[in-house]
Amino acid sequence: MKIHYFGHSAFALEGSENILIDPFISGNPHMQGRSLPQGMKFSHIFLTHGHSDHTGDVETLAKFHQATVVANFELASLMAGRGLKVESCSLGGLLHFPWGWVRQVPATHSSSFEGQYAGAPVGLIINIGGVTVYHAGDTGLFGDMELIGQRYQPQVALLPIGSTFTMDCEEALEAVKKLRPQIAIPMHYNTFPVIKADPQAFKARVEAETPTKVQVLKACEVFEV
Ligand code: NI
Ligand code: MN
């Protein structure tokens, strides 16, 4: 599986089909002067919650790629109201796709879309071609990350480190200790001044204190698992 990072919390996972997660692209300072990979087609777009730095370009991209938007029931309903093709589930729910499966897990955050209630914020456990990735969404540290680690043994954990709205490096280090992934990829930092963080300092701490390797990605970098 290939992991494409677009800065902030936006990723594409490339397997037998390609999916997008939290597609904040055109307004994303990390993506200034850049675009999604030419010719890459997306079957599904996953949203962890309704905030604009996560829903971003979902309408344009879902229409362009004729992709299905996958979110919790409330956010999926709001997207359906925009004329998008949707599929929904709720916390704990498992969805099967031709390319793998996705389970929604909790995130400690809030969620609204353009001022409307958008249900619970979520994290995603995504399995593509036997590789399991945990996208934590926007979240604080919570004890059940230990359960997520035990139950799903994600090879890769995508973790916010930017503080203010999510975990900071200190909390994300604790998250790594609970999840015990092979690889951690920091996200949701240095997009705006209020979420300034040093990913290299995070990498140094994690690699000194745990067996997990940290992969720091720049926008449009690709990492193969
Ligand atoms: Ni948010
Ligand atoms: Mn956010």
Structure description:
- The protein is globular.
- The longest helix has 11 residues, at about 170-180.
- The chain has a single domain (about 1-225), classed as Metallo-beta-lactamase, Chain A.
- The chain has helices at about 50-55, 60-65, 75-80, 145-150, 170-180, 200-210; strands spanning about 1-5, 10-15, 20, 45, 70, 85-90, 95, 100-105, 110-115, 115, 120-130, 130-135, 155-160, 185, 215, 220-225.
- With about 220 residues, it is of the alpha/beta class.
- It starts with a strand and ends with a strand.
- Strands 6-5-4-3-2-1-16 form a 7-stranded mixed sheet, covered by helices on one side. Strands 7-8-11-12-13-14-15 form a 7-stranded mixed sheet, with helices on one face. The protein has a two-stranded antiparallel sheet with strand order 9-10.
- Helix 5 links the parallel strand 13 and strand 14.
- Helices cover about 25% and strands about 30% of the residues.
- The site of nickel (II) ion (NI) has 6 residues, from loops.
